[in-house]
Amino acid sequence: RLVAAVTAAGAAVLIGRPGLCWLRELLFPKGRPLSRQAKLRRRLRVAIVGAGVGGCSLAHWLRDLYGEDLQLTIISDGPIGGRCQSVELADGRSYEGGAAIISELNEYMIGFMKRLGLSERYFAGLSAPLGIFDGQRLLVREADPKSALLGLRQIAAAKTAWRFISRYGFLSLRRLKGLMRHSAAPEFPRLYGCLRKGQAFETVQKLLNCLGPECVRLASVQASEWLCEAPPAGGGLPENVVNELVTGGMRSNYGGQGCENLHTLVGLVSIAGGFASRCFPVRGGNQQIPKGLLDLACPDRLLAGATAQKVRRASSDGGIRGWEILVDIQATGEAMKGAVSPDNAGGELSNEGPFDIVVVAHPLERSRLKIEDNATEAQLACNSCGTGRFRRCVTHFLRGALRCGNFIYKDIVANRTDINEAPPLAILTAAGSVAPFYSIGLQLPVDATRSEAKGIVDAALHGETCTFKVFAGEPLSESQLDGLFEKREGSTTVLDWYAYPEYEPLQQLGSFVLDGEDGSLLYLNAIEQVASAMEMSAIAARNAANLVVKFVDKHRGENRF
Fold first, then answer.
1. b/e per residue, 158-173, with b = 16+ CB within 10 A?
2. What is the pLDDT of residues 309-319, one digit of tens each?
3. Is 0.90 topped by the overall pTM?
4. By Cβ atoms counted within 10 A, which residue in 109, 233, 362, 510 is the most buried?
5. Rounded to whole angstroms, how far apart are CA atoms 520 and 323?
């Protein structure tokens, strides 16, 4: 490896940044299993409450670390994957119903794909035209390729560039694209390196200190304020870029919350997963990742469709303090779905345990789980995201064609309206939008091929019936949907999510460790105080794996492990 590193370093000098990325991949390949820990005297008993991306990531890493020395229990109230789910529609095809995209910057998610043998669904040169809507008119839009001269996509691309540069300015767009290189932006490669070395962070603030010297401050500054502030103190973006482009993406990514609602750190993570990087889903569906990781973890006990009601202290063998969990195995419903967080018990409670470590891997803001432990109460008081509520984001899947009259664009520079342009196929809403929706987007089946995807986009541009996804703050009525779409076919499939924390610009920072110095009760979703995304859940899981190693090593010499 040393010889390979020296050779690669020389090549990296010659070919610059791509070479450095190649060198990093050579020395630290993504998706490589974690190194096995020294054998234990007895099995380590761990329960993970939640089977989303975070819970499944942690489960597979713990199996890497401890092998057969790990006795693993997973408790989940819904399907494996949590907020990462596919939905099968009436056409017999599956579509992304929850977390939809992965960024090329996401080291862990890409590593999981490599380990599981999954590939990305990305079609270079093929995209649905984007438009920014204020509820009454399109403020800007990408050009319709079929209406370009001779139908050439290159001409449409040039037309799009002209429209965006005319409205926002070349330097502003360039600054937006490169915002993750700002001196105050989070340094994720640095964090990945610390976690790779085994560093563990008990609190969110400690993790942010590693992520970058300005990150703690950015969690207490309104996104719109920092983005518009002149550099080097801020992002230096014009107000129209922030209110239209940036807010449009954030409203779609965070349940209708814009730059005035979010703190800057959430905003930068949203930009990184949109304008500042290439993004894609997994071919066959993103849900394959948590499912595949759970298969690798081989849990000793999987309680699916069951709800953890209570965690409390219990004495285990030899008088060592552990935890037990009361589980309702008949409770129905998912905590992250439905208009009200369910709180009714379904039947008799089953006592699971004792456990050495319990990891809560779902948001306590939407949970039935009660924790009975005096040392935990103070931590719980400061561990909520923003207002302590989650945003409702109702996802509508329907077949139809967008009504042209609702989404007309007038080119202010050219002072004309191109009536031949089809509506944009991806519509984001600007700050102050009066539209009843957050975003609208043309959908491709999770297993679509390139030729099939091209056919779907071309059909949509010609006004044919296709599948669309509409995000809104509440269920839209049939008359509202009819006002947006024509040529509707079949019924509407609705997923009523409570998927995103309701943020505030001033975010208090909580802890990943809920029981003080003991470190045996962990909480992954404290990471959502920073941002809510699949990669953030994986980061919290990797940190939790390091915390577990730290806990076990601390007790190795006490006749415990």
1. ebbeebbeebbeeebb
2. 999 998 756 65
3. yes
4. 362
5. 9
